[in-house]
Amino acid sequence: xxxxxxxxxxxxxxxxxxxxxxxxxxxxxxxxxxxxxxxxxxxxxxxxxxxxxxxxxxxxxxxxxxxxxxxxxxxxxxxxxxxxxxxxxxxxxxxxxxxxxxxxxxxxxxxxxxxxxxxxxxxxxxxxxxxxxxxxxxxxxxxxxxxxxxxxxxxxxxxxxxxxxxxxxxxxxxxxxxxxxxxxxxxxxxxxxxxxxxxxxxxxxxxxxxxxxxxxxxxxxxxxxxxxxxxxxxxxxxxxxxxxxxxxxxxxxxxxxxxxxxxxxxxxxxxxxxxxxxxxxxxxxxxxxxxxxxxxxx
Length: 298
Hints:
Blueprint lengths: L1 H50 L4 H6 L2 H7 L2 E5 L3 E5 L1 E7 L5 E14 L5 E10 L3 E5 L3 E4 L2 E5 L5 E5 L2 E5 L2 E4 L1 H6 L30 H24 L65
Antiparallel strand pairs: 1-2, 2-4, 3-4, 4-5, 5-6, 5-7, 6-9, 7-8, 8-11, 9-10
């Protein structure tokens, strides 16, 4: 009896060990399949997120306070500029410590508080006292106009309130920004959909050609001189139209025709001077009368 008990116990032990081994091998074989499945789900999710267009209408509707919550760093350049970006580097300051030259990179937002406010998004920005240089699919909204750069190398150069676009760009309506597509079916690219292009050289003042900078500077100086002249002397007066001569309704109308009863010597000109009577013009002969003989007097 003891022998059978030992045999049964040994058999049960062997079956238990075999079951555990099979379960372990099954679990080990399933782990790579589960990991591959999870990786595929993550890739599909990332791809789907990349295909969703960035809501540029929302980004351009933000103010500086909202942009600061979405950005790692921010700064203000009084009195016009407020900048928020992934990285903000103040390269020059005034003696009082106020930023005088600022460089921003990665998901840049700038608010410009001019007479007509403006907002812009880009991948890189360089701001000084009078100049704003945007690069990397920049998009600018000012008033009812929205201008979008369509390439990483597109540059928006602003001298004061004047704008010059260098590179490929297009004008976009706000309704298109919400839909994420243009009338031609082209996607709205948007500066915040990608990172700055690492192959481009550093953004400096030399990125803008001197001819463009000089043209905008001369236009701004001419406008400043015009405004100073206007403030000092007032607006230019329009040429006055001469007023028509007043006619006395009681005055009798005067006739310029000469009196038929007057003698020729009595005819006077408008200044009152007597004129000699006009000479009688010689009689003109016809062409054929020249060949006729004149009758002799008897």
